[in-house]
Amino acid sequence: MRSLVKGFSRLSREDKVKLLLEQQELAPQLTESFQEYLHPTKQHLFNDISENIISNYYLPFSIAPNFLINDELYMIPMVIEESSVVAAASKAAGFWAKNGGFRTKVIDTLKNGQIHFTWNGDYQILNSYKDEILRLIHLATGSITQKMRERGGGIVDIEFKTIANMANTHQALIKFKTADSMGANFINTCLETIAPHLIDFINNHDQLKSNGKATTIMCILSNYTPECLVECSISCDIEQLKPYAGNYSASEFAERFKTAVEIAINDPYRAVTHNKGIFNGIDAVVLATGNDFRAIEAGAQAYAAQSASYAGLTSIDINNKQFVYTLKVPLALGTVGGLTNTHPLAKAAMQILQHPSAEQLMQIVAAAGLANNFGAVASLVTSGIQKGHMKLHLSNVLNALEASEAEKSSALKHFKDTVVSYSVVEEFLNELRK
Q: Domain with 131 in it: what CATH number?
């Protein structure tokens, strides 16, 4: 019977591996796999990133070239395991570079933090004291926010709200700008500094204290950032879409594309997969630059569900023979701090992108998301998604089936004009090996 492990974090890497193999009854050969992917000279950097590290997990670091964004050409780094994502981004980028490129703009960069507290009073009364409370929290956090304010950031506003279905439970929703930092640690430090001053203000105020004692529940940033928004659009004459139209005319393709987008706006089942196509591109760049893709995903998916139903994040307009396709998405990104300054390849990604500001990175990431989504929808309404996807996936299938170089060469020729699936490739190799 397996027993609880005590003091695992205090063991050396070698002892962690030894205990793991014993506890899980694993093959000793796994030790070689763990050892193989340790970095020969910079492992100390990776050891500081996480806890209980026994090895490193490699993902491909790829480049999608030819992204023309606001008339500036970029080569975009992408970290993702799916080859078709990079291929689709590159193809779409090359096409749109010849047709006006991506037009982007940052709508705002506000981020949110919350102080949750209990109090028997009406939260709306607190909003009438907003200016006084703002002065109080600016004074309380002055030393913390000084450098952020010098960079154009800081605490912007405060609003009091109640928590639905929870009696006497309220929140102070505080809005921040964090310049080029993602700002999680900055926001959380500010919130924890503000909370006791806010509670003291309520509990000692002549009019407010009559409603009972206020007590802090918790202080934490929110990854829901609906005001940290970027917009990205592509547009061209409909006739210019012919390279993507397949067997359809350009106008037929445009109408089919429009219908697919409207389905995603109105059907949650389709919307989830439609948005996944956007995040194929977004997550890959976010990960390459050392940003928090889980926070980005959580915030943007909540944004997609802000109305009565979950919906696609893109919109489309076809008028006067013009095709206009737009993505609007919240992206709370940073270009300083965290992994962006410590992970060697995250630092390299920033160099490749010419050291963008946070706002520039928001626009780059949005363009990658729109490029991937455009490519996916274009495939869906013409040849279907599997034809191109499985062709690019062929090498992964061959590796999984342990094909030799000769077998891979034969398979690539055989499947050049043939539909690919795992079972079909497996059957082909079995015949080849007879």
A: 3.30.70.420
Number of structural domains in the chain: 4
177 is catalytic: no
82, 122, 297, 407: the active-site residue: 82
> Looking at the structure, do residues 192 and 340 belong to the same domain, yes or no?
no
Antiparallel, parallel or unpaired: β 111-118 and 215-222: antiparallel
Statement to judge: residues 236 and 360 lie in one domain = yes
Q: Are residues 274 and 365 in the same domain?
A: yes
For 99-121, write each residue's pLDDT tens digit. Answer: 999 999 999 999 999 999 999 99
Average pLDDT, the chain: 94
Is residue 274 annotated as part of the catalytic site, yes or no?
Answer: no
Tell me whether residue 408 is one of the annotated catalytic residues.
no
Amino acid at position 67, single letter: F
Cα–Cα distance measured from residue 205 to residue 207, given in angstroms and rounded to the nearest whole number:
6
200 band by pLDDT with thresholds 50, 70 and 90: very high
Q: Annotated catalytic, 292?
A: yes
Inform me whether the pLDDT recorded for 190 exceeds 80: yes
* SS3 assignment, position 171: strand
Structural tokens at position 298:
């959580």
- The phi and psi torsions of 123 (rounded to 5 degrees) equal -60, -30
H helices of 12-167, in order, are 13-24, 30-36, 43-47, 83-97, 123-127, 130-140, 142-150
pLDDT (tens digit per residue) in 53-81: 999 999 999 999 999 999 999 999 999 99
Residue of 111, 292, 343, 393 with catalytic role: 292
Q: What is the DSSP string of 335-401?
A: SBSGGGGTSHHHHHHHHHTTS--HHHHHHHHHHHHHHHHHHHHHHHTTT-HHHHHHHHHHHHHHHHT
Q: For 148-166, how does the pLDDT look when each residue is reduced to its tens digit (9 = 90+)?
A: 999 999 999 999 999 999 9
Please give the structure tokens belonging to residue 427. Answer: 């059957």
> Residue 297 corresponds to which amino acid?
E
Instruction: Pick the catalytic residue from 138, 258, 276, 414.
Output: 276
Pairwise CA distance, residues 335 & 341, whole Å: 8
E strand or H helix at 213, and its extent? none
Q: Is the pLDDT of residue 40 over 60?
A: yes
Neighbours of 310 (CB within 10 A): 17
- One domain, residues 336 and 378: yes
Of residues 91, 389, 391, 393, which has the active-site annotation?
Answer: 389
Contact 70, 77 (CB under 8 A): no
pLDDT top residue among 385 and 329: 329
Domain range for 399 is 388-432
Q: Does the pLDDT of residue 147 top 80, yes or no?
A: yes
